[in-house]
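Module 6 notes. Inverse folding takes a fixed backbone as the condition and produces residue identities as the prediction. Think of it as a translation problem where the source language is geometry and the target language is the twenty amino acids. Below is one complete input and output pair. Work through it position by position during the lab.
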């Protein structure tokens, strides 16, 4: 620190620390914001937020790049009513974030006639950065310690998980704010319960409103409310046994009733949506053998990457191996420090209750995840983004634990001893490096890499190209939109055609559509079967399969045929 003692440096920064962490959070979230191509879920946000529909994209016939990308073109007359109309009939998401994005996108010019990706992602990035002051205030409310608040804010600013969510035009950074706000009300209610004081009516109404907004942003916010409910039920049962039940519970029951009503409003829309089951197929399925263990490892990976994620997705194997080893060594060293800090908090009379509540909240969340995964066949651990329901609690516990370490005279790093302050800085620097890893696309990579796939097409095909895929929902249209957008951006192979072969109960319909396209297109052309899950039509026998080995590309399973 340039010769300044670390404790004096920290005390100085406390005067403007929140601004520092907010600036760090904003800067890192906006680095390379639109460098990574959007994936299919982001296309859903873009199309529905514009008030457009996927249903206007022609199926079962070859279409041009511009035709496929038409839903990404803003319409001057589109309004909020169009957002509601198409979103609620074609998707399984509540509308609040899409409405906000619709209004937000009006501030940005188009990008070559298409919606601005940077503009759309900027909203998520700003909301993500807002979680830095939010977690600062929440932590201070809980522990009345600026040290805890500073550490929590610092890690929220650089958390690779938080940055991953903030760099996608998806509805996850806004729910994180609702989670923090709901938890603030929840923990206040806990204190009123133990102090045997009535919950203020203002707090009751604010809590109900926050919960309603959370559900209107993401249905999985209900899981946050379930975790709060489980903790409250545990406390209620404990008080009933001790005959300490108090009238404070009446208003908490009113909050619960408000949450039930807020959620029930969306049930008819959710149940009547014919796309819901198809859109969630990817987290459903049977397990055999070692697949029963995969949710455990997926959950561990999600927890680890909340603070540490080195370039484990680098194309260079030695970088991947080295990153994995460093992360493993780091967690073997850091875990005892974190556990020791939490144990200390649990032994402090002043902080025991709130620490127990936060730990109980996280345990409830993990319990719900594994119940859904193992008993209902819905593997929530497959989507790391779903951990938003308890992520802020992890950051607060991290902050309060490391605050203990900060005040420790020395901490052992294998053979060496350093001050507790330096140990905290080492852990934070790991988080910062991990955030840089994410913004450079070396960690938390997109599930689809159309940029790499297009480079393969350009290298392999010199003839006109037909890209064929089977289509069930707008997810599969989004997969091809990613490819079309890259082709349009590169201004190469602009005469490429796409075939979205619709597939419902009868997979033969996709094969028939492909057969017709092969017959009608002028030759020569190259056929790229991409994520095509149907039998080959007879017409494909007139084309020859490319036998040369081709690279694997995330999100795109493909075969190439030469049709002469």
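Target side of the pair, the amino acids:
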């Amino acid at each position: 620190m340039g010769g300044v003692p670390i404790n004096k440096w920290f005390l100085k920064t406390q005067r403007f620390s929140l601004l520092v962490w907010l600036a760090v959070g904003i800067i890192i979230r906006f680095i390379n914001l639109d460098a990574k191509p959007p994936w299919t879920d982001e296309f859903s946000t873009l199309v529905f937020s514009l008030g457009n529909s996927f249903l206007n994209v022609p199926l079962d016939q070859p279409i041009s790049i511009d035709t496929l990308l038409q839903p990404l073109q803003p319409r001057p007359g589109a309004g909020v009513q169009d957002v509601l109309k198409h979103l609620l009939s074609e998707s399984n998401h509540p509308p609040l974030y899409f409405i906000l994005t619709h209004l937000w996108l009006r501030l940005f010019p188009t990008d070559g006639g298409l919606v601005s990706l940077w503009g759309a992602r900027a909203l998520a990035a700003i909301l993500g950065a807002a979680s830095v002051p939010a977690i600062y205030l929440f932590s201070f409310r809980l522990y009345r310690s600026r040290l805890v608040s500073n550490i929590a804010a610092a890690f929220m600013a650089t958390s690779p998980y938080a940055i991953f969510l903030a760099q996608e035009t998806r509805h996850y950074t806004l729910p994180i704010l609702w989670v923090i706000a709901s938890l603030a009300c929840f923990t206040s209610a806990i204190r009123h319960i133990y102090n045997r004081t009535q919950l203020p009516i203002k707090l009751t109404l604010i809590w109900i409103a926050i919960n309603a907004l959370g559900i209107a942003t993401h249905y999985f916010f209900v899981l946050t409310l379930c975790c709060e409910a489980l903790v409250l039920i545990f406390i209620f049962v404990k008080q009933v046994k001790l005959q300490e039940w108090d009238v404070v519970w009446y208003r908490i029951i009113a909050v619960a009733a408000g949450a039930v009503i807020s959620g029930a409003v969306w049930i008819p829309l959710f149940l009547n949506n014919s796309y819901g089951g198809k859109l969630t197929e990817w987290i459903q399925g049977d397990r055999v053998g070692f697949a029963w263990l995969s949710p455990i490892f997926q959950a561990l990976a999600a927890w680890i990457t909340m603070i540490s994620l080195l370039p484990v997705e680098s194309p260079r194997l030695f970088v991947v191996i080295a990153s994995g080893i460093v992360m493993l060594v780091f967690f073997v060293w850091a875990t005892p420090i974190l556990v020791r800090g939490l144990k200390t908090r649990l032994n402090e009379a002043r902080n025991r209750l709130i620490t127990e509540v936060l730990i109980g909240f996280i345990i409830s969340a993990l319990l719900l995840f594994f119940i859904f995964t193992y008993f209902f066949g819905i593997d929530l651990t497959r989507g790391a983004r779903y951990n938003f329901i308890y992520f802020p609690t992890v950051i607060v516990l991290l902050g309060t634990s490391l605050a203990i370490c900060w005040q420790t005279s020395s901490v052992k790093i294998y053979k060496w001893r350093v001050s507790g302050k330096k140990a905290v800085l080492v852990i934070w620097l790991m988080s910062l490096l991990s955030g840089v890893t994410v913004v450079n696309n070396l960690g938390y990579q997109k599930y689809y890499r159309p940029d790499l796939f297009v480079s393969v097409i350009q290298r392999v095909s010199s003839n006109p190209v037909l890209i064929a895929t089977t289509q069930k929902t707008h997810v599969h249209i989004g997969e091809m939109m990613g490819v079309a957008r890259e082709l349009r951006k590169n201004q190469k192979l602009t005469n490429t055609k796409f075939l979205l072969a619709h597939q419902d109960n009868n997979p033969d319909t996709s094969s028939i559509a492909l057969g017709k396209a092969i017959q009608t297109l002028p030759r020569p052309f190259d056929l790229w079967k991409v994520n095509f899950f149907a039998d080959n039509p007879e017409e494909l026998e007139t084309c020859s399969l490319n036998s040369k080995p081709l690279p694997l590309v995330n999100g795109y399973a493909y075969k190439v045929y030469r049709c002469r």
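Reference fact for the lab report: The longest strand covers residues 465-471.
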